Amino acid sequence: MSAKPNLLGELRKSKWTEARYAKRTVKDELRENLLRKLSTGEELFPGIRGYGDTVIPQIVNAIFSRHHFILLGLRGQAKTRILRELAGFLDEEIPVIHGCEINDNPYHPICRACRERAALEGEAMPIAWLPRERRYVEKLATPDVTIADIIGDVDPIRAAKSGRDLSDELTIHYGLLPRANRGLFAINELPDLAGKIQVGLFNIMQEGDIQIKGYPVRMPLDVLLVFTANPEDYTARGKIITPLKDRIGSEIRTHYPATLDEGIAITTQESWTAREGRRIEIPQYIREVAEEIAFQAREDKRVDRRSGVSQRLPISCLENAVSSAEQRAARNGEKIPVARVADIYAAIPSMTGKFELEYEGELRGADTIARELIRAAIGKTFTKYFKDTNLQSVVQWFEMGGELKVAPDAKTAEYLAELKNVQGLFDHTPALGVGPKDDPGVQAAAAEFVLEGLWAHKRISRSEERGFFAEARKAPEPREAPGRMPRRQFN
Description:
Strand content: 5-15%
Number of domains: 2
Structural class: alpha/beta
Shape: elongated
Helix content: 40-55%
Distance between the termini: 110 Å
């Protein structure tokens, strides 16, 4: 493998010819590499699920159109992650003028310092190589961001040391945007950026002009600007000024998983459930319950839909449920932790901070709403498995006076023994894929889910004091004989 060119003269003789790379922009580079990936069938955004037919094709269209673009969506929709993966469409590395603060193209320098060096050093001008990961620059928009942070400012110390006038271009200390030259510049939460800063952005996007302390400097930066924003923040915290919106080529809306299976796939991928290689059993119905909680919350009128319910909710819930199972197994000296419904309830602290409540929800409290969401999720999942199943024998056992209460941290053997007292309960666990030869913890978890499902559908009752039980039936009131006047009570 031949060594990479280190001087401008060597660069001209390499594959990085002036004819091809002198005027090749970063938008052209992204187009070429994206076309190649599409033609070879490579995965464009590894790890991004649920957007294959919606968001990703729109991003591809924006890049093919050489557009600056913005991702609009509620929290927890992988907007920032998508932007960071855009760097994968850049070349592995590119040549830049050695020591240049803004990654100048050796064939076409735009800063005055590099133009002077090129004139002075000629073919002997040193070349450096910039990897793709350093060509992605990201800034979180906050109200205290200044023009100096984004565009740059005059450096009086540099001016004094070099004996130059403050209006001289060589006294500029460049901000983040010029330093992203020949790369990607991403701004998260764009509406939080002050209006005057947004003005500086759209001027760069369209005309390539910047002003530092009132001095105009012509600097045609080669950069793709990408943004994220929560559409509800337009009125809550700020807004995107109209001229900037007009200059953003494509507005792409992200969304939450459309189906439960998509959500489970994302949660399984992102959650930390493989604990140091330790075997932990997470039944499929438990994964479904954890995911269904988020779906229920997004539809609940007591939860603020404008704020959204992040995908982090089921991720955190599942992680916390696994931790609860680990803790129980550790306390009881059991080798294989098995997550069950009780662990979902133990994960409530991981949920209450993931959604904002409307007034009615605030009156009830976040913990109460979380418990009701769990119950609704269990009921929905239970219906999937037992829609056409007759569970009357189990219900009847409780109606005949049976009660079942076991401590949440009880040993699996003790819990299983108590569950087996419930008439006909284990006749229905095969619907969950669990049989008598399975691990005792798996059997106990399945049986508990059946009982929780019956409670969710109000066929049996449950309380902290009594555990699972059935309410006593009221005797029917006596009916009057037909044709008679109803009896009346007179004082």
